[in-house]
Amino acid sequence: MKKITKDDALANSQDVKQANLRVLRELFPEAFSEGHLDPKVLSELLPAGAIDEREEKYGLNWQGKRQARQLALTPSTGTLRPCPEESVDWDTTQNLMIEGDNLEVLKLLQKSYAGKVKLIYIDPPYNTGGDFVYPDRYDDNLATYLRYTGQMTDQGIKTSTNTESSGRFHTNWLNMMLPRLKVCKSLLRHDGVIAISIDDHELQHLRCLCDEVFGSENFIAVFVWERSRKNDAKLVSAGHDYVVVYANSLAHLNELNIKWREEKPGAREIWEHYLLLRDSLGEDDQAVETALQKWFSELPRSHPSKKWSRYKHVDKHGPWRDDNISWPGGGGPRYDVFHPLTNKPCAVPERGWVFSTPETMKKMISIGVVEFRQDHNDPPMRKSHIRPIDFEIADPFAIEADLVVGDGDEGQPDDELATQVRGTYFYKQAQVTAKYMRRLMGEKVFDNPKDHDELARLFDYMTAGDRSALICDFFAGSGSTGQSVWELNAKDSGTRRFILVQLPEPLDPASKEQNAAARFCDGIGKPRNLAELTKERLRRAQKILSEQQLMINSDLGFRVFKLDSSNISAWDPDRENIDQSLLDSMEHTKPGRSDDDLIYELLLKLGLDLCVPIQQRVVAGQVVHSIGAGTLIVCLATKIHRDDAEPIALGIVEWHKQLNPAGESTVVFRDSAFADDVAKTNLAAILQQYGLENVRSL
Q1: Which CATH number applies to 78-261+422-565: 3.40.50.150, 3.90.25.10, 3.30.870.10, 3.40.50.2300?
Q2: What residue ranges do the domains of the chain occupy?
Q3: Short-list 433, 427, 457, CA closest to 265
Q4: What is the dihedral of CA 202, 208, 210, 213, to 10 degrees?
Q5: Signed CA dihedral, 372, 373, 377, 382: sign only
Q6: Whole-angstrom Cα distance, residue 507 to residue 528?
Q7: What is the pLDDT of residues 25-48, one digit of tens each?
Q8: What would you report as the CA-atom Rg of the chain, rounded to the nearest whole angstrom?
Q9: What are the CA-CA distances from residue 131 to residues 154, 163, 398, 506 (Å)?
Q10: What pLDDT digit, counting tens, does each position of 299-324 carry?
Q11: Which pTM was predicted?
């Protein structure tokens, strides 16, 4: 039975450097000599010019970049401690709200969530000067966080004033962002995407940073989010933010033929009104069309459906509008299409027909998606329906003669409506969000919160409608990302999950900007920090959604975890009292840590989901936990006598056969529980005899 020490893999987060070395060793074994990498041999194995040995290279450089890069590669020795009492629906929820320094938290999440996150959205601190919350330190980042939050005695870590006069205005911000972006990249799925809100101060630097971390070839777009108009500006009103978007692999998105589309705002209202007209007017297409056009004419200009009043025609498939029937760009096919009344060839569009062959055109005419005009002097129209039929879901320009076309209703989802590609500019007034947040919280406690409706729209768009997407925000702030995920699920019965991370940034009641937020925390009896505001916002949003009964069977909860030092004690002897140090080291776990603390640290270090089911059973009088259907079995009994070893081992073996008969398991005990080495050895031997080889002790 091997003991878990502070240097053990089970006591640390992912060691990225060692993982990189293993990959190189597997790919280029000949480049290693006596266990060490030979750069010269490696360069000979790669194409000429693959390794750039020039001293001067194109790129963004700044003081501290090398240390910041190394910081991303340094494993964390911390853990995440569960806080069920601060959570909502702890036993059933799949959502996470983690309080702590996001760099350390991201490192700890690497084993459990690598390659699982569909979308990362962050709204990091804008670099406008003033107090800079994330200290520019390159020693133990966990220790920095613990001192910063008052959990370790030291002179304390003070925030720096990051102004132009400090000479490090951009440097501090870049040193903060680089390691976080490098670590979070490992969490993204191969088809994942990251979106980052930013303003003018660091836009160009963020682009260079993302080019380096994600690759310039994976850049997708920069959205411009217009939020306000500043009438007091002297020259130009800069009331916008940007959202910079990169793919983890744009080539992979293209291979999957991923297309981002969103439902046209107002399309659903048109379809619902059409269904009402059908119910009242029956199969009379002309009567329904006349009534629909009357409805369009009476809509106010501000109504979202007014923009789509071209969907004023009606056939058996629903409202439709005329669309271009010519080949995009010109040079399309030219052939005769005969008018059904005059029996003469219709005029051919100047750019040629959109359908590549006469046979495909005939199929389109037969299913009723081509509408002829009064005579042959004008080309016919192509129909586009508000609820697209089968051929309209596919790219019409790719339709070939051998395409099999159904009747337009088979296999069509009931909620599939006309879609559009988003432009890179959108407007949502910041004042709308501010008023909503003031109503939700009872007073103004957040500065410039992001609009959860607009975020939900972006999330749905950038995940291509993936209803089970895992979405991560490690600058959670006001918690808008969490509410956005909930409301998306309410809209389409999705099962999306979120992971939010927020530093417990202290709120100063003496500060004019933070006074209201600090008083709010006092009013709800919580510590004065930003993470408490994030959690309270989520609780209030959850309460409203529950009362509205929008999500009766949906997940409206979140599990709270807090970053802390490892539960496993390091050997730190008192040189003046070695005897007492030896006695203290007999208990390998830190005092004051619960069984749950230990279990969740094991989950993290073994790479299991923090929301994985945990079962419990009494075996030979001792409580045993099974995590992930037997992937991890934990018994944290404080006393195991020699006579107890065999019945505990056999009970665990029997339970393992029921849960995970073919899979491997890690079995963990409390090291100090064993009365003597004989009991420990016997128990481990029995487990190993039945195939449970990986037996460890804390």
Answers
A1: 3.40.50.150
A2: 2-71, 78-261+422-565, 263-420, 593-697
A3: 457
A4: -130
A5: negative
A6: 5
A7: 877 788 787 777 877 777 767 777
A8: 31
A9: 20, 9, 55, 12
A10: 999 899 998 999 999 999 999 999 88
A11: 0.84
Other CB atoms closer than 10 Å to residue 278's CB: what's the count? 15
Count CA atoms within 13 Å of residue 279 on its CB side. 6
pLDDT tier at 561, thresholds 50, 70, 90: very high
**Contact (Cβ atoms closer than 8 angstroms) between residue 227 and residue 429:** yes
Give the helix/strand (H/E) hosting 455. Answer: helix 452-462
- The span from the CA of 698 to the CA of 567, in Å, is 9
End-to-end C-alpha distance for the chain, whole angstroms: 10
How many Å apart are CA 53 and CA 150, to the nearest integer? 46
Which residues lie across from 501 on neighbouring strands?
A: 98
Q: How is residue 285 written in tokens?
A: 């297409």
Q: What is the mean pLDDT of residues 425-444?
A: 91
Place of tokens 């600058």: 475
SS (H, E, C) 561-626: EEEEECCECCCCCCCCCHHHHHHHCCCCECCCCCHHHHHHHHHHHHCCCCCCCEEEEEECCEEEEE
Assess whether pLDDT exceeds 70 at residue 671: yes
d(CA 3, CA 685) in angstroms, rounded, equals 15
Residues whose CB is less than 8 angstroms from the CB of residue 196 and which lie 6 or more positions away in sequence, other chains included: 121, 122, 123, 124, 206, 210, 243, 244, 245
pLDDT of 582: 43
Tokens of residue 112, six digits: 């459990």
**CATH label, 593-697, candidates 3.40.50, 3.40.1350, 1.25.40, 1.10.8:** 3.40.1350
CA–CA gap between residue 498 and residue 487 (Å, rounded) = 12
Distance in angstroms (rounded) separating the CA atoms of residues 376 and 587: 92
User: Closest Cα to residue 446, out of 509, 501, 517?
Assistant: 517
Q: Which residues pair with 622 in a beta bridge?
A: 619
Instruction: For residue 30, count CB atoms less than 10 angstroms from its CB and return exposed for 0-12, middle for 13-18, buried for 19 or more.
Output: exposed
Average confidence (pLDDT) over 407-421: 57
Is the pLDDT at 414 greater than 90, yes or no?
Answer: no
Q: How far is CA 50 from CA 43, 55, 414, 504, in A?
A: 8, 15, 52, 44
Residue 441, both tokens: 């919280």
- Kind and range of the H or E element at 98? strand 96-99
Tokens standing for residue 187: 């969490």
- Residue 3: both structure tokens together: 């003991």
